[in-house]
Amino acid sequence: MTDQKIYQASTTAPVNIAVVKYWGKRDPKLNLPTNSSVSVTLSQADLRTHTTAACSASFGPEDSLLLNSSPQDVSGARTQACFRELRSLRTALEASDSSLPKIATLPLRIVSENNFPTAAGLASSAAGFAALVRAIANLYELPASPTELSRIARQGSGSACRSLFGGYVAWQMGEKDDGADSLAVQVAPASHWPTMRALILVVSAEKKGVSSTSGMQITVSTSKLFKRRAEIVVPESMLLMEKAIKKKDFQSFGEVTMRESNSFHATCLDTFPPIFYLNDVSRAAIRVVEDINKKAGKIIAAYTFDAGPNAVIYYEEENTDAVAGVLNGALNGLDGWQARDIKSQDSSDLDARAVQVLKDGVSRVILTSVGEGPIRTEESLIDAAGAPVKK
Ligand code: DP6
């Protein structure tokens, strides 16, 4: 009789929001980028994917993945690449130590849950692939470091490679054709600059229009601005950003963050036909951040936008009243302010028309902060009989 034992391991993994943006692939199959990038990992208390990976001879015959209770297609090249790479590391481990159970070829059953809306432009694929790779690496008891695992997670979704670390993370683009040097490294742990806060204005919880995967492909092939961004703008941003993080210099961090977002969206506009991720609500968010900074006489708040209209606003804890408090004053009544004890402040310095656009267009706010990388957990989403745990 074959061994019907169920092996399993679980993890949670965070979302990250880039402050130097990844946009463009030099190799779409391996997800090798045209430029390096930097992100801030956000706290898993507010945004995370929880994943259990299990394998057993009693499963299958196919590998399977359940996300928020709905079955996902795992036959895509990206998921397959992650499974293949992790299995090959496990196979090598089993070959080097004959006492290890032979589990590399057993069917995988993966169960995942997000504590936030999937594909709302909240970097769910980053947390999702980071959790998938970390959970299977735990299941296979691989000795691989987060940087080694980042090479695998990158093949699932580029930005996922940065979610294997907490704090401030760089994805070094690398030069090799096989992607062996296109890896994530930690610039600084969360504890180095723990006062970093993020306020997310959720503009729409609907699925986004042009996916980042196809959007960046069209940008690479049609935008004339793009080459300059990849070759000149980003290398400069990378140097400035890493220095700003090391020195905990918010002035510089904020300026580079905003310029980077603007530069990325400029190349989207320069894509032919153009791609519009920012909408009127996004532009109103930019306006109120400018008003907040003008009042402070320096940069205390920094906006950034990914492939969708949601605004992520970074600020330091000491400026909670002047940033989150003032926005609460303007957008009081929205869901999400209760999560942290934000006191509503006078918002009369904000442009009244921009405030009205935000009131009409923002569905909720998420208050969060810089946070830790993937965390192993004993809380399993698969029961002893191998069935998904009902929540
Ligand atoms: C705008 O990582 O989602 O959020 O590699 O095709 O899965 P794929 O793309 P993805 O792109 C993220 C783009 C971005 C910027 C960033 O996170 O750096």
TrEMBL record:
EC number: 4.1.1.33
Location of the Diphosphomevalonate decarboxylase-like N-terminal domain: 13-184
Pathway this chain belongs to: Isoprenoid biosynthesis; isopentenyl diphosphate biosynthesis via mevalonate pathway; isopentenyl diphosphate from (R)-mevalonate: step 3/3
Alphabetized SUPFAM superfamilies for the sequence: GHMP Kinase, C-terminal domain, Ribosomal protein S5 domain 2-like
Keywords tagged on the record: ATP-binding, Lipid biosynthesis, Lipid metabolism, Lyase, Nucleotide-binding, Steroid biosynthesis, Steroid metabolism, Sterol biosynthesis, Sterol metabolism
Gene Ontology terms describing biological process: isopentenyl diphosphate biosynthetic process, mevalonate pathway; sterol biosynthetic process
Every Mvd1 C-terminal domain range: 198-375
Catalytic activity: (R)-5-diphosphomevalonate + ATP = isopentenyl diphosphate + ADP + phosphate + CO2
Xref: InterPro entries: GHMP_kinase_C_sf, Mev_decarb, Mev_diP_decarb, MVD-like_N, Mvd1_C, Ribosomal_Su5_D2-typ_SF, Ribsml_uS5_D2-typ_fold_subgr
Residues in the signal sequence: none
GO MF term list: ATP binding; diphosphomevalonate decarboxylase activity
GO CC annotation: cytosol
Family: Belongs to the diphosphomevalonate decarboxylase family.
Protein name, as recorded: Diphosphomevalonate decarboxylase
Organism field: Cadophora malorum
